[in-house]
């Protein structure tokens, strides 16, 4: 009786046999599809169809990172990839679906790829979630080619016109810091969250160049935009949203993180396009006020000479989006890390205070001209950058053609991930790399050492366009704050986990701090 259900159908035996044969064939094909092409770097064997994406599919409680003392925490991608490099070597391969992802984990591999073969490894991969959000435009995620070079060249020269890398920008930064100090003084000896005031101040510097204005710290719309921007960077690399790269239709699901990300995209679009429209309506062709005015004038010029120009308001929207996001989030997080490290290392903070006292004193604001005479302070900022690397996995590249790297074949279309976190924690380069030691950037005479392996802004043709601005802001803001305050970590507070909160950038976990006026 047990088999009567099947046996009651005519020809059940041939049908069942055919089904088993088809299943066997399918399993065989999956096994063949799961075999990586020859010549690739080593790496864990991919699963059929999904590749190595299983790491991201595991629930948070099961995703473990290896830690000293056997403690377990939710896994961060840069730590996972650094751990895999210890198993498979400094160049290894994972698969996203059937697409190879090549991870570069030491300085030599990164330099050989991004500098030695820059033309091959300067493109951006077509990642569904990124393409949906950026439409492959702007200066950060756009494909490498003539349009990108044209737009980046214009953007860089225009930002320089408005002070990028020049002393003329100093007064704007110093002026912004007056608002920061005023906000911090309100708290007296009480602990407070420094995230909002630091984010507002950093964003206002890039806004003054791009939008021609600063925003009041109590401006509700501005505060919402900064919060949404930070949230978008965080959820865009969550395991759920990364599934969009395998099944793009998931992006349009009407619930959860998918819906939240789409709403953020809509809100930021309305905010930025309103600013562009205001500039269009008040444009003074003889006296351009900022980046947007200059771009709109360039659009008019290009229309006169070419009907196929890449300069248009749509592209402008994505460029100022890049400037707004990249110009705020990275420098904000670096400054927050600086304040956190100073509060946890009072001995280092004391030496910074002493150098400021000797070089600048209390009667004037710091200037970039002071930088050359403040090696310990500069070394301290650099050590914070080394320890935290706020863009730990850089922005992924793509191989535009098949290439050979360190003896391995890198197929055309492979995603290239430079693990800058691993580079800056490499024990072969940095002695006791997990220790906070600003003196590693000083020689025996206490003078600053320029180390080529220190690359927090990346290297190659896609090096961060805002590097000069970020260095200016970091030095002037950090020194100004240290000149005026002593930062303490509340005695009753638990020290935050120092591996940080991974989004597209690496932010410190929320913390409170005490700022005592000096």
Automatic annotation (TrEMBL):
Top EC category: oxidoreductase
Taxonomic lineage of the native organism: Eukaryota, Metazoa, Chordata, Craniata, Vertebrata
Primary location: endoplasmic reticulum
Function: A cytochrome P450 monooxygenase involved in the metabolism of arachidonic acid and its conjugates. Mechanistically, uses molecular oxygen inserting one oxygen atom into a substrate, and reducing the second into a water molecule, with two electrons provided by NADPH via cytochrome P450 reductase (CPR; NADPH-ferrihemoprotein reductase). Acts as an omega and omega-1 hydroxylase for arachidonic acid and possibly for other long chain fatty acids. May modulate the arachidonic acid signaling pathway and play a role in other fatty acid signaling processes.
Cofactor or coenzyme needed: heme
Pfam families (UniProt xref): p450
UniProt keyword list: Endoplasmic reticulum, Heme, Iron, Lipid metabolism, Membrane, Metal-binding, Microsome, Mitochondrion, Mitochondrion inner membrane, Monooxygenase, Oxidoreductase, Transmembrane, Transmembrane helix
EC id: 1.14.14.80
CDD domains in the cross-refs: CYP2U1 (cd20666)
SUPFAM superfamilies per the UniProt record, alphabetical: Cytochrome P450
Protein family membership: Belongs to the cytochrome P450 family.
Entry's Gene Ontology molecular function annotations: arachidonate omega-hydroxylase activity; heme binding; iron ion binding; long-chain fatty acid omega-hydroxylase activity; steroid hydroxylase activity
PROSITE patterns given in the database record: CYTOCHROME_P450 (PS00086)
A biological-process GO annotation: xenobiotic metabolic process
Designated name of the protein: Cytochrome P450 2U1
């Amino acid at each position: 009786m047990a088999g009567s259900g099947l046996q009651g159908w005519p020809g059940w035996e041939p049908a069942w046999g055919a089904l088993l044969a088809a299943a066997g064939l399918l399993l065989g094909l999956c096994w063949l599809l799961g075999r990586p092409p020859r010549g690739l770097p080593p790496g864990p064997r991919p699963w059929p169809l999904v590749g190595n994406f299983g790491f991201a599919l595991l629930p948070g409680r099961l995703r473990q990172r290896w830690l000293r003392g056997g403690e377990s925490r939710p896994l961060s991608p840069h730590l996972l990839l650094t751990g895999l490099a210890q198993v498979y070597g400094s160049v290894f391969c994972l698969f996203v679906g059937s697409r190879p992802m090549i991870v570069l984990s030491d300085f030599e591999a990164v330099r050989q790829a991004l500098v030695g073969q820059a033309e091959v490894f300067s493109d951006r991969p077509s990642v569904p979630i990124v393409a949906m959000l950026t439409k492959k435009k702007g200066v950060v995620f756009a494909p490498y080619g003539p349009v990108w070079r044209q737009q980046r060249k214009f953007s860089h020269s225009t930002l320089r016109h408005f002070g990028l890398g020049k002393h003329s920008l100093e007064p704007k930064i110093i002026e912004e810091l007056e608002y920061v100090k005023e906000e911090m003084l309100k708290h007296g000896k009480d602990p407070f969250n420094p995230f909002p005031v630091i984010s507002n101040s950093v964003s206002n510097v890039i806004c003054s160049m791009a939008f021609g204005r600063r925003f009041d710290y109590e401006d509700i719309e501005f505060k919402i935009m900064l919060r949404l921007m930070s949230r978008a960077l965080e959820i865009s690399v969550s395991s759920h949203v990364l599934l969009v790269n395998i099944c793009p239709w998931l992006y349009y699901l009407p619930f959860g993180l998918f819906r939240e990300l789409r709403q953020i995209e809509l809100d930021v679009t309305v905010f930025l396009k309103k600013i562009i429209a205001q500039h269009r309506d008040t444009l003074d062709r003889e006296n351009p006020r900022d980046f947007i005015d200059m771009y709109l004038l360039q659009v008019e010029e290009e229309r006169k000479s070419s009907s196929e120009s890449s300069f248009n308001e749509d592209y402008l929207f994505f460029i100022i989006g890049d400037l707004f996001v990249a110009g705020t989030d990275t420098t904000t997080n670096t400054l927050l890390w600086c304040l956190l490290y100073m509060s946890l290392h009072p001995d280092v903070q004391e030496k910074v205070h002493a150098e400021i006292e000797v070089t600048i004193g209390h009667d004037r604001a710091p200037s970039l001209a002071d930088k050359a005479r403040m090696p310990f302070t500069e070394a301290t900022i650099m050590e914070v950058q080394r320890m935290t690397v706020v863009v730990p996995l850089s922005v992924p590249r793509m191989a535009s053609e098949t290439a050979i790297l360190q003896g391995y074949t890198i197929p055309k279309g492979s995603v290239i991930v430079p693990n800058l976190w691993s580079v800056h924690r490499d024990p072969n380069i940095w002695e006791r790399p997990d220790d906070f030691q600003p003196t590693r950037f000083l020689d025996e005479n206490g003078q600053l050492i320029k180390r080529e392996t220190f690359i927090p802004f990346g290297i190659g043709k896609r090096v961060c366009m805002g590097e000069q601005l970020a260095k200016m802001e970091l030095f002037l803001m950090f020194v100004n704050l240290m000149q005026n305050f002593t930062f303490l970590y509340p005695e009753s507070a638990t020290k935050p986990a120092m591996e940080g909160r991974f989004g597209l950038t690496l932010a410190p976990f929320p913390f409170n701090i005490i700022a005592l006026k000096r």
